[in-house]
Design a protein that fits this description.
about 280 residues, alpha+beta, 3-stranded antiparallel beta sheet, 11 strands, about 35% helix, globular
């Protein structure tokens, strides 16, 4: 057979094989909710666009924000005491089921070391609870979508500071930085922080008896219901897209605890659409 015919035959064979694979490999559809709260399991491969987000798809700007607020406001609320055990599941170390991963430091620490002493981990409010003065009230004060385990000392250093770039290294902070008016988390969770803050701003719009939480582009917000800097948070969302840990955490909260989702984990591009 001439060489040109052989090449033609090989090309046809490759095309046929590719078509066969395309026809036989199942396409991804909206997955069912996770049946286990095990955070080491792979998160459901779905965007929930045809179900959970159906009323938001195709919208942008303020219309998208309003639609998402309605969607995610339907949630099961838990108590502040219940947050302890929930975090032991949502933030379980994928490599060690006896530990949790601390948000800012990135360290893996025993689940049993939860408390308020040196060497313990406690419940970090990523949207600082003094920004809007909601404290630990059931609702924003107990919302798992912005509560994370963190070393007691590192948590104390962050305090209620706004988020921004720059500062000096935080002791045992995993690369986090701090200055007099802002905190910069380690690179691996900058996007996580941004998406948690913006979730809170969409979820809490002044109803439920709580303040209307909003991001702004300044620091030193004090007890006002604002957190900055928005421009930096948007940058972090772009630079650090959702990873498997964050996606699985979102799924576990949805399937097992609050039954609502952080839409910016599922659709990080919605940050730019709204803000």
């Amino acid at each position: 057979m001439p060489a040109s015919h052989i090449r033609h035959w090989r090309a046809l064979t490759l095309a046929a094989s590719t078509l066969l694979i395309a026809l036989t490999v199942p396409t991804a559809t909206a997955a069912t909710s996770a049946t286990s709260a095990d955070p080491t399991a792979t998160a459901a491969v779905t965007t929930y666009d045809d179900t959970y987000y159906a009323n938001a798809i195709g919208k942008s700007g303020s219309a998208l924000k309003s639609s998402l607020h309605t969607i995610i406001s339907s949630q099961t609320k838990i108590s502040y005491d219940a947050v302890w055990n929930a975090l032991k599941v949502t933030d379980q170390d994928p490599s060690n089921s006896s530990n949790v991963i601390l948000l800012y430091s990135g360290k893996s620490r025993s689940k049993s070391l939860n408390g308020g002493d040196s060497g313990d981990w406690n419940r970090e409010h990523v949207w600082a609870k003094s920004h809007g003065d909601f404290g630990t009230a059931t609702g924003p004060g107990t919302d798992l979508h912005h509560l994370r385990p963190e070393d007691v000392a590192v948590n104390g250093i962050r305090g209620n500071l706004d988020f921004d770039n720059g500062g000096s290294a935080v002791t045992n902070g995993g690369g986090s930085l701090v200055d007099s008016n802002s905190f910069e988390p380690r690179d691996a969770v900058k996007g996580d922080v941004a998406r948690m803050i913006l979730y809170m701003a969409v979820r809490y719009e002044g109803g439920d008896g709580f303040a209307d939480l909003e991001p702004d582009d300044v620091v030193n917000n004090g007890s006002n219901p604002y957190i900055g800097r928005l421009s930096v948070l948007k940058q972090w969302n772009d630079e650090d897209p959702p990873d498997a840990f964050e996606e699985n955490r979102n799924q576990v909260i949805y399937a097992t605890y609050q039954h609502n989702r952080n839409p910016f984990v599922d659709h990080p591009e919605w940050v730019e659409s709204i803000y």
